Amino acid sequence: MHRSLAGSPEQPASVSEEKRISPRETMAAISTPTGEGAIALIRISGEDAIGVADRIYRGKEKPSEFPSHTQRLGEILEAERLIDQVVLSVHRAPASYTGEDLVEIGCHGGVLVTSRVLEACFRAGARAARPGEFSERAFLNGKMDLTQAEAVMDLIRARSDLALRAATEQLEGRLGSEIRAIRGQLVELLAHIEAAIDFPEEDIAPAEGGQLQARLDLIRQKMSDLLATAEQGRILREGVRAVIYGPTNAGKSSLLNRLLGYDRAIVSETPGTTRDTIEEVISLRGIPIRLLDTAGLRDSQDVLEREGIARTERSLATADLLLHVFDRNAPKPTGLDRNQEDRIELVLLNKSDLAEHPDWKDQDALRICCVEENGLRGLEEAIVTRISQNHLRPENSLAINARHRDCLGRALASCDLARATRQGGLSPEYMAVDLRAALRALGEITGEENTDEILDSLFAQFCIGK
Ligand SMILES: Nc1nc2c(ncn2[C@@H]2O[C@H](COP(=O)(O)OP(=O)(O)O)[C@@H](O)[C@H]2O)c(=O)[nH]1
Ligand SMILES: [Mg+2]
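That is the input. Now the predicted structure with magnesium ion docked in place:
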């Protein structure tokens, strides 16, 4: 069989022509959060953005006369009635965030004022922007790749230093360039195989075949290194799920309050006070941690408390870290030793200000006190150490997300198929097909290879005005 890659039956899925090249409608949105603030920002982007601005703005000059990247003080009018005094800036295509003509209006941050200004934009010809549409246009106009657009979202949502750093690096394009480098190597490999298909008389020598495999293995290794950052990505984006559990009255809610630094949960000497699961996020050495305070485990007749205990058990099943709290003044409950081996569990003996019950004599545990704040620094240290060991890769500041993991997983599986094909001595065409599938999956990550469907679901996760 003589087949060139260009004639491959599997055409890559791609963004519809319409999405890529149609002149884009002018859209507008409020880009700042709703609510009262000193100022709010309204963005208009698209072919007629500056025209819309001309129609609603009065000042010494028309926005269409402003040089690009300048701002002026003026007024927004609605049927000759003043709505607000604003600062308006003009960014001409392609040197703008979206790559199109972009106008930004800084107005006073009242809920009514901002919506009036936005309505004026609509009346002047703009339509409402969908969530993430500004970033989607930035992507479609080649201002950023998909990983960078996703980083914008990560950056906005980042709640800890490490998460912020990972988002910033991704925004700068590190992940994108890593993926493009791997793709480049795959393309070279494919070209080599392609040559062998087109010129079968110059058969790939066995030695060369071995080299081919070595190159493929190197590429596979790079992919699995990236895949290994998925866990770090999940932790940085969603936080570590740390569940505080144990018998009633051990001091679980007190511990939550201590770690948070304020009284969030009710602390009481009445057993069974905490019935619902309480969740709060803290940042420890830059790592986001979702702390869950749970209903104490005990036999209870109370319906509400029993539901609380059921919730505790569900939380335990999905935890990344377990903080098992006991009152060291009380006897040791049975069945504790069974959990000792668990690498995600830390045993905490609380109330170190009180005498220790003899049951705990040889217990390997962290001894803490929540009333006098004793041992809590050591606990924070232990939490950070556990999380770092189990989930983080300090040598790698990249942290892929679930979508990247899915694409990389498929790319890796295709490479494995290609490898098996070669080892099975099948004709190189089969290997080429597999490698092309791997290329496509990698291309989905950066957006070089995308369907409208992927774009729609990705940008819909953004907020409006981004
Ligand atoms: N002496 C002492 N009492 C504590 C300590 N931590 C919590 N308590 C008390 O133990 C009782 C139960 O605390 P709480 O946090 O509600 O326990 P939970 O049921 O496990 O959530 C309360 O009266 C707390 O004041 C501690 O370190 N030392
Ligand atoms: Mg409690």
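Residues 174-198 form the longest helix (25 residues).
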